[in-house]
Structures are given as C-alpha cells and as structure tokens.
Design brief:
- The chain is an all-alpha fold and 212 residues long.
- It is 68% helix and 0% strand.
- It is globular, with a radius of gyration of 17 Å.
Length: 212
C-alpha cells in the first residue's frame, strides 16, 4: 500500500508536469505558430485543462473535505475527458508533432490520475460524492463562458466548446446545435458531459463493490 504522503504528492507532481507541458505548448503556439500573435482558441481552460489547476491546488486543501471533491472531480470528469479526447483527437493533432505528442501524453496523464486517485482512496465513491462535484463543474462552465465572451477576437475563444457565437464543434453535438440552436445545443452538450461523468462515477463504484 502506497504511504499517504506519497499518494498525496503524486497528483501534485502530475500537476507540475502538466503545467510544464502547457508552458511549452503556449510558447510554441505564440512564437512559432502565431509569430508573436496569440490565438485564443488555444487558451488552456478546457475540461481537460482543469486537472492541471486542480492538482496544483490540492496541497492548499490537505485534510479538508474540499480536497476529496477535487479528487472526485478529476476521477470522474478527468477520465471522461481523457478517454474522449483520445478517441476523437482532432483537437491536438496536425499542428506540429511535438504538440501532438503533448496532447497524447496529457490525456494519458488524465487517465492515470483518475485511476490513481481511485486506487489510493482519495475520491468519494458515494453517489453524493458525484453530486458534490457539480458546483465545481458549473463554476468552471461559468468561467469558460466569461472567457468566450470577453476574449479578444470575438468568437475565437471556445472554452468547453460552448461558444455563444457559433454551433458547438464537437461531433454529433454540432448537428444537434444546427438543428436546435446554439444555446440549446450547448446546454445539451453540458448535460451530456454531466451524464458522462456520472456514468464514470458509477463504473468506479461498481469496481469498488467487485474488488474492494
């Protein structure tokens, strides 16, 4: 059994690793790809970006209930985002081989984090544990919306893929947004993400009941 102090340090180390990779990505995009112009499409506040911030914040919540909420969020939504991005990797392939490698390693790290946090007992496996992650999810949705509205180049920022300026770009949901409208399409997408996170949570609960 991994000692508690190491179990708590490894997520923070993952956060440092993710942050270092993100710094490289942003530098490369700004200097090499953008030639000194910043493209807000690549601003690091997607669902898959959140574990970087949350891992770095974990030491501030050591021994507090909020820490378990953050870990449960990374278990449920981190695994969902990591697997979904690897299944549909269009968002990080094609710009440069190093950024493609960065994208693959990033999402593999998210999957590792989710499984590690579950195996080391740092998440809340109860149904209420999932419910307690939802305020954090909706807070991040609100931040993403603010970035989409306020970022320069109207409509260029597309955090959480819920831009109010054009239909969502994600497969399947794009067609839904074309049929239902931008706002309803975005709401359907967010509801689907919540459902996906819930199904991941149920899967971990099932594994708990079977093996622990």
């Amino acid at each position: 059994m991994l000692p508690e102090r190491y179990a708590e340090r490894i997520p923070f180390a993952c956060g440092l690793l993710l942050a270092a990779g993100e710094c490289y990505k942003q530098w490369f995009l700004y200097t090499i790809v953008g030639q000194g112009h910043y493209d807000w499409w690549y601003f690091p506040f997607q669902l898959c970006s959140l574990p970087m911030y949350l891992c770095l914040l974990l030491p501030l919540f050591r021994g507090k209930p909020a820490r378990r909420v953050l870990c449960t969020f990374m278990q449920d939504f981190g695994l969902l985002g990591g697997v979904a991005a690897l299944l549909v990797p269009d968002g990080f392939l094609g710009v440069h081989w190093s950024l493609s490698l960065h994208g693959v390693l990033w999402h593999v790290t998210l999957i590792f984090l989710a499984v590690f946090l579950w195996l080391t007992g740092q998440t809340d496996r109860s149904l209420s544990g999932y419910v307690r992650t939802l305020p954090l999810f909706f807070l991040c949705c609100a931040i993403a919306t603010a970035i989409n509205l306020l970022a320069p180049g109207q409509g260029r920022a597309d955090m959480f893929y819920i831009s109010p300026y054009y239909p969502i770009t994600q497969p399947v949901f794009h067609e839904i947004a074309l049929w239902a409208g931008i706002l309803p399409g975005n709401l359907i997408y967010l509801a689907s993400v919540c459902l996906g996170g819930f199904l991941v949570h149920l899967a971990f609960r099932r594994l708990d009941q079977k093996y622990f």
